[in-house]
C-alpha cells in the first residue's frame, strides 16, 4: 500500500519508457514493465509484461494491484517499429505490429479500466506518433497502428468522461532512442523497390539518430500527468509542430512530392 499516486509505464526498459518512469519516480509510486526480467532501479519497480499476451497482461496487473490496490496513471508506451514497404510486409508481420502498438494498448487498458471506474478517477496516456497523424512511407503498418490508436483514444476519452478518467495522446516526432534497433525488416523482396528499400531504412536510422532529446518527452509526460485538466492531444518535438501543419495546408500532390524529397526517395 502507498499514499502516493500509482503509475504503470509499459516498455520501461529503454528509451522514452525508461526516462518517463524515472522522471515520475520523484513523486509517484512507479511500476515499469519489460518482457525480460529487470531489477528495481532508480525507484522504479519492474514487472514482466508482454502486451501481446492476454495472460501476461492479466498477471502483470494482478501483481500490481496486489501491492497497491489502485492505479492512477497508465502510460501505454510499449511499441514496435518496422522499416519495410507495404507490399514487402507480410500480413503476419503487419498483424504483429498491431498486436503490440494497438491491441497491446487495448489489452492493458481493458485490464485497468474496472479499477479506475471503481475509483472514479484515473488517467491513461497513450504514446502515439506524428506517424499517427500522417502516413509514413516505409513504415506504413506502424503508421496505421498509430492512426488506429488515435481514433480509439479519442472515442475512449468521451466514453470515460462520466467516470472522471482522462485520456491523452502524446504525438512525438523523431527522437534519439534505440527504437530502430529492433526494427522489423521486409518479409518479401520485390526488385522494383530495391532502391527505395535501402533509402527508407537509412532515412529512418538517420532521423532517429539526429532526433530530439528523448528527455523532452519524459518532461512533457510529467507535465501532462500533473495537469488537473489534461488535453486529449500533445505534440512533442520540432517535427511534430511543423509537419502536421504542412500536411494540412499543402495540396496532396505537393505534400507527396515534399515527403519524397524529405526521405531522399527517387
Ligand atoms: N523514438 C522515436 O522517434 C519515437 C517517435 C514517436 C513515437 N515513438 C513511440 O514511443 C514508444 C517507445 O519507443 P522508444 O523510442 O522509447 O523505443 P525503445 O527504446 O525501443 O522502447 C520500446 C519499448 O517497448 C517495449 N516493448 C516492445 N514490444 C513489447 C511487447 N510486446 N510487450 C511489452 N513491451 C514491449 C520494449 O521493452 P522490452 O524489449 O524490454 O520488452 C521497450 O522498452 C513507442 O510506442 C514508439 O512508437 C517513438
UniProtKB/TrEMBL annotation:
Oxidoreductase as UniProt keyword: yes
SUPFAM superfamilies: NAD(P)-binding Rossmann-fold domains
One Pfam family per UniProt: adh_short
Ranges in a coiled coil: none
InterPro entries on file: KR_dom (IPR057326), NAD(P)-bd_dom_sf (IPR036291), Sc_DH/Rdtase_CS (IPR020904), SDR_fam (IPR002347), SDR_oxidoreductase (IPR051911)
One MF annotation (Gene Ontology) recorded for this entry: oxidoreductase activity
UniProt KW keywords: Oxidoreductase
Domain Ketoreductase as annotated: residue spans: 5-163
Family assignment from sequence similarity: Belongs to the short-chain dehydrogenases/reductases (SDR) family.
Descriptive protein name: SDR family NAD(P)-dependent oxidoreductase
Organism: Mojavia pulchra JT2-VF2
Amino acid at each position: 500500500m502507498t499514499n502516493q499516486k500509482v503509475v504503470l509505464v509499459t516498455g520501461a526498459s529503454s528509451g522514452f519508457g525508461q526516462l518517463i518512469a524515472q522522471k515520475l519516480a520523484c513523486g509517484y509510486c512507479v511500476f515499469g514493465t519489460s518482457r525480460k526480467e529487470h531489477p528495481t532501479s532508480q525507484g522504479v519497480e519492474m514487472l514482466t509484461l508482454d502486451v501481446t499476451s492476454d495472460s501476461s497482461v492479466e498477471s502483470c496487473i494482478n501483481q500490481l494491484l496486489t501491492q497497491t490496490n489502485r492505479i492512477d496513471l497508465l502510460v501505454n508506451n510499449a511499441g514496435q517499429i518496422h522499416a519495410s514497404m507495404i507490399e514487402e510486409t507480410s500480413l503476419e508481420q503487419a498483424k504483429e505490429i498491431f498486436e503490440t502498438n494497438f491491441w497491446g494498448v487495448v489489452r492493458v487498458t481493458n485490464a485497468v479500466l474496472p479499477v479506475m471506474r471503481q475509483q472514479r478517477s484515473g488517467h491513461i496516456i497513450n504514446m502515439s506518433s506524428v506517424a499517427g497523424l500522417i502516413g509514413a512511407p516505409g513504415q506504413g503498418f506502424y503508421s496505421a497502428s498509430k492512426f488506429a490508436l488515435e481514433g480509439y483514444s479519442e472515442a475512449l476519452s468521451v466514453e470515460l468522461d462520466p467516470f472522471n478518467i482522462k485520456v491523452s495522446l502524446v504525438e512525438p516526432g523523431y527522437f534519439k532512442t534505440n527504437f530502430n534497433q529492433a526494427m522489423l525488416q521486409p518479409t518479401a523482396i520485390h526488385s522494383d523497390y530495391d532502391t527505395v528499400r535501402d533509402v527508407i531504412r537509412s532515412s529512418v536510422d538517420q532521423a532517429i539518430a539526429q532526433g530530439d532529446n528523448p528527455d523532452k518527452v519524459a518532461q512533457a509526460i510529467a507535465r501532462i500527468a500533473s495537469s488537473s485538466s489534461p488535453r486529449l492531444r500533445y505534440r512533442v518535438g520540432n517535427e511534430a509542430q511543423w509537419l502536421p501543419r504542412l500536411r494540412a495546408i499543402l495540396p496532396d500532390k505537393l505534400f507527396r512530392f515534399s515527403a519524397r524529397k524529405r526521405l531522399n526517395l527517387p
